[in-house]
Amino acid sequence: MKSIIGRYNRALENVVEARLAFDRLNDAAPLASVKIWEANVQEAEFARADNPAAMDIMQSKIKRGTTLKNITASIRRDDGLSQSAVLDNGDATDWLLQGFLIEDEQSVI
Fold this sequence. Notes:
Layout: H1 2-28, H2 31-47, H3 68-81, H4 91-108
Helix pairs in contact: 3-4
């Protein structure tokens, strides 16, 4: 029960941000696509009592790429494996990772 209450509280905290993101998506999408999405949601809502799987239309179909965490781990692993005669103090790796973090932060803006 505690987990459900925690999730509910987090949902309440994030509702404004989610609504703004949803509105930005709707504003950016072609009107024809928005109308198709709305029709699909209405059909799913109507069918959900008899077929809960109808609500699967709400799940994202976007394939997620490699996460920043996985990229970071891979670079650090590769950096550790590629020890050469020239000692590297890790500055190059840190520089690359800092660039990824900056790029990731810019994509949010």
